[in-house]
Amino acid sequence: MIPELGHFALILALSVAFIQAVVPLAGAQRGDVRLMAVARPAALAQFVLIAVAFACLTQAYVTSDFSVLNVVRNSHSAKPMLYKISGVWANHEGSMLLWVLILALFGSSVAAFGRNLPQALGARVLSVQAMIGIGFLAFILFTSNPFERLAVAPADGRGLNPLLQDPGLAFHPPFLYLGYVGFSMAFSFAIAALIEGRVDAAWARWVRPWTLAAWSFLTVGIGLGSWWAYYELGWGGWWFWDPVENASFMPWLAGTALLHSSVVVEKRDTLKGWTVFLAIVAFSLSLLGTFLVRSGVLTSVHTFAADPARGVFILLLLVIVIGGSLALFAVRAPALRAGGLFQPISREGGLLLNNLIMTTAAAAVLLGTLYPLFLDAVGGGKVSVGAPFFDAVFIPLMVPMLVAMAVGPFLAWKRGDLAGALGRLKAAAMVALVVTVGTWYVVADGSIGALLGMAVAAWLFVGTVSELAARVRLFRVPVAESLRRLVRLQRASWGMTIAHAGLAVAVAGMTASAAWKTESIQTMQPGDSVEVAGYTFTFRGARRASGPNYMAIRGTFEVSQDGAALTTLYPEKRTYPVEGRPTTEAAIHSMVVGDLYAVIGDADENGGFVTRLYFNPLLAWTWAGALIMVAGGAVSLSDRRHRIGAPARRHGAADGAQPAVS
Asked: First vs last Cα of the chain: how many Å apart?
C-alpha cells in the first residue's frame, strides 16, 4: 500500500500544481486578493504531497521492498544502509522525484518566508514555479513512474552500480540538484517581472538570496563530484571536461554572472534586461543538463537513462520553457528602462566585464559540449572535444577576469579612477612578483602559463585582503577604530571577500596540480621501491580483504621522504559479486604541499601488481578554495538585509492588477 500511497500523492501534487499555476496568476492579473492568496497554501501543499511520495519511495528502499521495480533495479539486501537510502536518487526515476521535491521545497520556502513580497509579484512567482512543476510531475507520472509494481517479486535486487556506492556520490546529487533547481527561483522571479513589466532595486534584492543559495549549493555539488572522480576513478585527476561535468559547470558560470549583475540592478538601477536574461539562461542551462543525462545522447558514468521517449519528453519541455521565456523576454524586455548611467571605468563597468567573460566562457563550454552531438546528428561523423580545446579557450578568458576581480572593488560607482585603484594594489603586485620568482626557483621546469597562474592567484588573494584593509582603513586610523569598522562590516561584504579569497586559493591549487603533477606507472613486486617527486613508495604486497558487499585486493605502500617514514597507503581493487563490476579505490595522503596518491591494479603471473603512483602538488587547495567560496556564500546569506527583506517599492504595478513599466 505504501508505494500506491506515494503514487497517489504525486497525482494529487500534479493537481495542486495546476491550481497553483492558474488561480494566483489570474488573481494577479485581475487584482483579486482572494485568488492571489491561493498561491501560498498551494505551494506548501504541493511540497507536503511530494515529500510524502519521496518518503514512500525511501521506505521501499530501506525495507528492500522488491515488489517495486525501481528497488529491484537499483538495490540489494546486502547493501549498507547509506547506499540503500542514496539508491533512492541514484537512478533516473528516483532522481527526478528528488528534482521535483527540491523544486517544491524552493516554492514552499518563498511561500513561507517571502511574506514581504508584494502579493501580486509573489502570486506570479509561485505560479511560474508551479508551471515548471507541472512539466516535471507529468514527466514522472507518464514516463518515469518510480512506484511501478512487479506481479511477482524476486528474492533480491540487482544492486547498484558500484561506482555510485560511495559517500561522495551519496551526497553529490542532492547538493547538485539544490543548485540546479535553485536557479528556478531566479527564473520564476524573472518571468514574473516580465509579466508585471517591472524590474527595480527591490526586485534585485529579492532575487539575490535565492540565486546565492543556488550558487552555493551548486558549488558544493560540483566540488563533491570532482572529489569523487579524483579518488574513486583512480586516474589521478579531478576534472575531465566530461559533457556531464560541463552540464553542471555551465549554470554555475551563468549563476555567477547573475549574482554580480543583480548587484548592479540593486545599487545602480541599471542592467535590468541583462539581469533578467541571465536568470533565464542560468535555469535554461540547468534544464539542458537534465536533458543531457537522461536523453541517451551521451554515454557517461554520470548519465541515468537512455530511453529516447524520455529524452523527447524532456526536449519538448526544454523547448517550451526556454522558447517561451525567451519569447516573453523579447516582447517585454525593451520596456524595462535602464536607470543610472556609468563610465566604462567604474564599479559597474568591472561587474559588466565579469558578466561578459563569464557568459562567454559558458558559451564556449556549451559549444564544446554540444558540437560533437550536432555533428554526429547531421551525419558528420563522431568527433571528440576534450581538455585541449577547453583549456585553450577557457583559461585565456579567466586570466583577465581574475586580474579585474582585484581591481573592481577599488573602483567607485558610476565613475572610477583606474590609476588610483592600481596604486592601492601595489602590495598585491609585489606579492605576485615574489610568488612568480619563488615558484620559478622551486620548480625550475615550470611553464610560463603555470607561473602566470600562480601570479594571478597571489594577485587576487592579496588584492582581496587589501580591499578589506581599505574598508576598515587599516594603518590609516587607530587599530581600535579599524577593529570597530571590521566588526561592523556588512556580512555581504565579508561574504564577497571570503568568496574571492577562496577562488584565489582554488586557482593556485588547480594551477599547481595541472602543471607539476608527477606520475609513475609500473609493475611492482613486494619489496620494490619507486621514487616519485622526492617521495619513496615501497610496495609491501597485497592481501585479500572484504567489505559489507564486496571483495577486495588491498595493497600496502610505505611512503618515506629522505629516509624518514611519512605515511602508509592502502589502495584497493574491489569486486562487487552482485553487480559483477570492479572498482578502484585510490589511497590518498593529503598534505599542504600536495597529495600522495596510490592505485593498485591487476596482478601478473609472477606475483607483481600494476601500480600507479602520483604526487599532485597543492591539489587539496582546490577543494579548500571551493569550501571557502561556499563559506563566503553562507556568510552573505546571513546578511541582515536578506532576513528583513527588500526595501519598499514605489507605488505602482507591484500592488495592482495592471502591468506597468517603471
From this structure: 55
